[in-house]
From TrEMBL:
SMART domains: HATPase_c
Bias (Pro residues) ranges: 258-267
InterPro entries cross-referenced by the UniProt entry: DUF5931, HATPase_C_sf, HATPase_dom, Sensor_HK_TwoCompSys, Sig_transdc_His_kin_sub3_dim/P
Domain Histidine kinase/HSP90-like ATPase: from-to ranges: 305-404
Protein name: DUF5931 domain-containing protein
Length: 416
């Protein structure tokens, strides 16, 4: 069952309308002989009683309390206020005698506040204030005090309702995250006790047997790492469909523990809606038996086009590792989300790059590094740095300032 934090307010409003109706009827009976036109007062009180009885269930919940009902409820109250000078004497009105609906009017205002928050409450109380000023024929000290109380009360209750709703949404989201985390942990335990152990055994036996079994073992090792990444982070690599195109996996709509749900990144450098993209989801597919991917626990959000270009630069760096460091080289990808920049470091354990080799390659017309990596980062307003020593591997640092990422995205949208 879904518990609403505002439901007690609706129940209190229902009781308030009944009690204030009885109070207004008591005032009418008490002042019956003092009215100039008591029949008019009786007719209005009969209408008010019938309206309250017929709409008793309308204020039982937010779903039943519609805008049309709220407008009608407020209209009944305002009509009663404006009818007061027609049934009561001028002297009694000048003395501060209550209007025909009396404090029942506050129930109509509170309905607006609970339904729509403090702005609705302020609007409804302003209408009531204007009707009271017209009824009194001007501003009086007691009128100002009473109207100020109505306005402050409606705004205060409306604000409390908005805070309660925000708290309810936060609690519901926390419960969903907790449920998703528990389910992920349960699946991780089950998979670890069965599938992962089998894949690890196939990898070891395949490597020991050699030949075609070694290739089978290598593939089993890749699947083991991919599966570990899935159960530990929830990031799923993009899969190939039957026609060779990449399919976007369904993450089940579960939110990340570090923030609200992030729309999945479509294949290619840009999403059609231009919204934010979780860079982790683009880099996770690179993880394998010889590539280790380390990421933050929260989404790393960048504009979709920027995230796609940065992921492509990482892919180009890994291609260089495979080509120049060899198929047996191991690579590590480290994703860091700094307050003002996003940094991706790609490191390998290959032989390293001799000093001056990058400049010579560019002079020879080999533009892989210059265009695929440096060019992309330059267009994004970022930098690409190489740190390498002979025999000690290579480290590539790709840095994109978040301010530059936003400018690059805006520039791309303007170009389109």
């Amino acid at each position: 069952m879904r518990m609403s934090v505002e439901q007690p307010l609706w129940q209190a409003l229902t009781a308030y309308r009944v009690l204030t109706l009885l109070y207004a009827l008591g005032l009418c009976v008490y002042s019956f002989d003092d009215y100039d036109h008591p029949v008019g007062a009786v007719v209005y009180m009969a209408v008010l009683t019938l309206w309250t009885a017929l709409t008793f269930r309308m204020v039982a919940s937010a779903e039943r309390c519609t805008r049309r009902f709220l407008v009608g409820d407020l209209s009944i109250a305002v009509i009663g206020i404006l009818l007061t000078p027609l049934v009561d004497s001028h002297d009694r009105i000048a003395e501060g005698t209550p209007t025909l609906p009396s404090i029942w009017t506050m129930g109509a205002v509170l309905g607006f506040a609970i339904k729509g928050g403090w702005r609705w409450g302020a609007s409804a109380s302003t209408v009531v204030c204007a009707a009271n000023v017209i009824e009194r024929g001007g501003f009086a000290q007691d009128t100002i005090h009473m109207l100020s109380l109505v306005w402050v009360a409606s705004v205060g209750i409306g604000y409390v309702v908005e805070v309660a709703r925000a708290s309810e949404r936060t609690l519901a989201r926390a419960l969903r995250i907790e449920a998703a985390t528990r389910e992920r942990e349960r699946l991780a335990r089950d998979i670890h006790d069965s599938v992962l152990q089998v894949l690890a055994m196939v990898q070891r036996r395949g490597a020991a047997i050699g030949g075609e079994a070694a290739e089978l073992g290598r593939m089993a090792g890749e699947q083991e790492i991919a599966l570990r990444t899935l159960v530990s982070t929830g990031l799923v690599a993009r899969q190939r469909t039957g026609d060779g195109t990449e399919a976007v996996p369904d993450r089940g709509g579960l939110p990340d523990a570090g923030g609200p749900p992030v729309p999945p990144c479509l294949p290619g450098p840009e999403r059609s809606d231009g919204g934010p993209c979780d860079l982790r989801a683009l880099l996770a597919p690179h993880a394998g038996s010889r590539v280790t991917f380390s990421e933050p626990g929260a989404p790393v959000l960048l504009p979709a086009g920027v995230a796609g270009e940065l992921a492509a630069a990482v892919g180009a760096a890994l291609d260089n590792v495979r080509v120049h460091a060899g198929e047996d080289a191991h690579a590590w990808i480290l994703l860091e989300d700094e307050p003002d920049a996003v940094m991706v470091t790609v490191r390998d354990d290959g032989p390293g790059i001799p000093e001056g080799r990058l400049a010579d390659a560019e002079a020879e017309g080999r533009l892989g590094v210059a265009l695929s990596i440096r060019g992309r980062l330059r267009d994004l307003g970022g930098t690409a740095e190489w740190i390498s020593a002979s025999g000690q591997g290579t480290e590539v640092e790709l840095t994109v300032p978040k301010a530059s990422a936003k400018k690059a995205q805006q520039k791309g949208e303007a170009a389109r």
